[in-house]
Amino acid sequence: LKEENAVLRSKINKLQILSETQADKMRKLEKKLEENKIKEEKEAQDLEAMVQHVEQNLQLMTKRAAKAENSAAKLRQENAQLQAELSSSRLENEALRAGQAGLAAARQNAEVALQHLLQVTTSSRASIRQLLSGAESLQLIADLLKSIDRISEVSEDGQ
């Protein structure tokens, strides 16, 4: 009976040690699980912050593109007006040539109108380039948002 008690005590000691080992493992796993949860929450917050930043940039780019479009429209209108002035100046120039009176003044007016027209044309082209650049930036941001959505879907599927 003593021998049997000793064997049982030995088994109980082994079981207690095994139980403590398993409890330690469980505590470590719970701690690791909590760390992983915290890490995932931080990553989710970082991703959300990045999405918000991209959305803000998208709104800013949209405003800039709208402003550039308005500017381009104004420049086109001014360009048309200046072309009409140039045409009028040319007609006046021709009339002055025909009458041979004030030829130098008409040439100067035509030259000034032409220079102004060239400046507006150059400015219009730059604005149109800027508008195209803004549109390309908006497309890039849209593509980035699509890829973020795909990454989120893959991340959720992987879990």
Automatic annotation (TrEMBL):
Coiled coil ranges: 12-92
GO terms, biological process: positive regulation of cilium assembly; positive regulation of protein localization to cilium; regulation of cytokinesis
Keywords recorded for this protein, A-Z: Coiled coil
InterPro entries per record: ENTR1 (IPR026757)
Membrane-traversing stretches: none
GO cellular component assignments: centrosome; ciliary basal body; early endosome; midbody; recycling endosome
Family designation: Belongs to the ENTR1 family.
Name assigned to this protein: Endosome-associated-trafficking regulator 1
Organism whose genome encodes this protein: Alaudala cheleensis (Asian short-toed lark)
Gene name, Swiss-Prot/TrEMBL: Sdccag3
